[in-house]
Amino acid sequence: MEEKNTKQKLNFWKWAFLLLLSIVLGVTIWLTIQLTPVVQGEPNLELSETEEEEITFQIYAQKKDLNQLVTTYIDEELSNKQVDFNFILDKEAQLSGIFQLFGRDVGFSLFLDPFVMENGNLQFKATRISVGALDLPISFAMNLIKSQLKVPKWVAIDTKKEIIVFNLNEFYLESGMHFTAEKIDLENDDIRINVFLPNK
Questions:
Q1: pTM for the full predicted model
Q2: What Å distances lie between residue 115 and 13, 31, 191, CA to CA?
Q3: Could you tell me which of 58, 87, 82 has the C-alpha nearest to residue 70?
Q4: Distance (Å, rounded) from C-alpha 56 to C-alpha 54?
Q5: Contacting residues for 56 by C-beta, under 8 A, at least 6 apart
Q6: Predicted local distance difference test score (pLDDT) of residue 111
Q7: Which residue from 162, 193, 188, 182 is spatially nearest to 91, judged by alpha carbons?
Q8: What is the dihedral of CA 3, 5, 6, 7, to 10 degrees?
Q9: What are phi and psi of 119, to 5 degrees?
Q10: DSSP code for 92
Q11: SS3 assignment, position 105
């Protein structure tokens, strides 16, 4: 009888030990799974490569900063071309220069209202034009400007809609740097430009 009781006690401790061992192993496995990062699918190598190709940042500029930038571009980048215009930002955007009218040089100032397009390009809607003492329709004057003015290829003049578009998506510096517009508020002097710089 005593031998039977001894076996029962041994069996009890045996099962108690196995149960405890199972609990410890189960908790250990659960903790290991929870603390190990899980990667679902293949890593997006294309995204990483794209991020490494360009550095992107945004700059806040004032009108005087952009006026200086445009002047520098005209002086340096267009120095080997016939340049007969100026572009400045004030209360409005203003394109000024000289064109030929009836065989004479006539100065003009075209005033424009800027607008940021969805693709980051800049559109300027003509609001009025000053051509000496002459009173010319905007579309007629813009036709003269388009036919005579030497503007960069990335600048498009639409005389019917009376707009000028700066196609920034076609404009790249020699370094590969390019830009998109985020905001242009001339009244509050708040201009924001996205800059894309090759990461080389």
A1: 0.67
A2: 83, 57, 11
A3: 87
A4: 6
A5: 194, 195, 196, 197
A6: 95
A7: 188
A8: 90
A9: -85, 5
A10: S
A11: strand
131-140 contacts, C-beta under 8 A, 24 or more apart: 131/101, 131/106, 131/107, 132/106, 132/107, 132/108, 134/101, 134/106, 138/110, 138/162
Token representation of residue 114: 């800027």
Contacts for 127 with CB less than 8 Å, ≥ 6 apart: 92, 111, 112, 113
Q: Which residue has the tokens 């990461």?
A: 199
Partners of residue 43 on adjacent β-strands: none
Which residues lie across from 58 on neighbouring strands? 194
Q: What is the pLDDT of residue 135?
A: 75
Say if CB 135 and CB 146 are below 8 A apart. Answer: no
For residues 200 and 174, is the Cβ–Cβ distance under 8 A? no
Least confident piece of the model among 32-36, 111-115, 155-159: 32-36
> How far is C-alpha 11 from the geometric centre of its chain's CA atoms?
74
DSSP state, residue 121: -
List CB contacts of 9: < 8 A, sequence separation 6 or more.
none
